[in-house]
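Example 200, ligand zinc ion.
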Amino acid sequence: LLPPALDELARLLGRLRGVGQKTAQRLALQLLDSPDEYLTSLGASIVGLRVRVRRCSQCRGLTEQDPCLLCTDPRRRDDVLCVVADIPDQYAVEASAAFDGRYFVLHGLISPLDDTGPDEIDADRLVERAGGGRTAEVILALPPSPEGEATGHYLAGRLHEAGVARITRIACGVPHGVELGFVDRVSMAHALSRRHEVDK
Ligand SMILES: [Zn+2]
C-alpha cells in the first residue's frame, strides 16, 4: 500500500528494537511531513554517528575524543575501577553520583550460548589496566543474572591473579530481572555503598 520509498523507510525503522510495524509506518509518514531542515539534520546525524562516536581506548566507553572525559578528568580517582556490562549501566552508576573513579565497559557478558567469551569483553585489557599495583579496588557492577554471575566470577579470578587487592561486587538491592541501566539513582547509590568483597 505504501509507496516504495516510504515502505523502505518503514522497514528500516521497524528493524530497531522496540519499534513495531505499525509504529514504523507512522514514523515514516511523520517524517514525510517533516520540514526539510529537520530531515537534513536527522540524515546527517545518522550518517555521522559512527564517524563521531568511538570507543575510548582506555575504558571502552563511548566518546568523541579519545581518551574520554571520564578517563581524563583529574578530579576522579585513578585507583578505583568500576566494571560495567554496558553503556546504560555506566550511565546509571554515574547518575548515582556515588562513584568518582574510572570505568571499564565490557560491552557484554560472558555467555557460552551466545558465543561470548573473555575476548569479546576484552578481559585481557581490563586485567592489564587494573593489575600492576595501580588499582586499589575493582568494583564489579554487573547484573544479578546467570551471565552476570559467571562474568563476575571469571573476572574476579583473573583480577586476584593479577594482584588486585580488593575486588567487590555491588549489593543485589537491584531487583532481579531489572536491567542496571533502568535502576534509579538512589537504588544504585545504595547498591554501591553496600558493596561487598568477593572471596578469593
Ligand atoms: Zn575512557
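Summary: Strands lie at 54-55, 62-63, 80-84, 102-105, 137-141, 166-169, 196-197.
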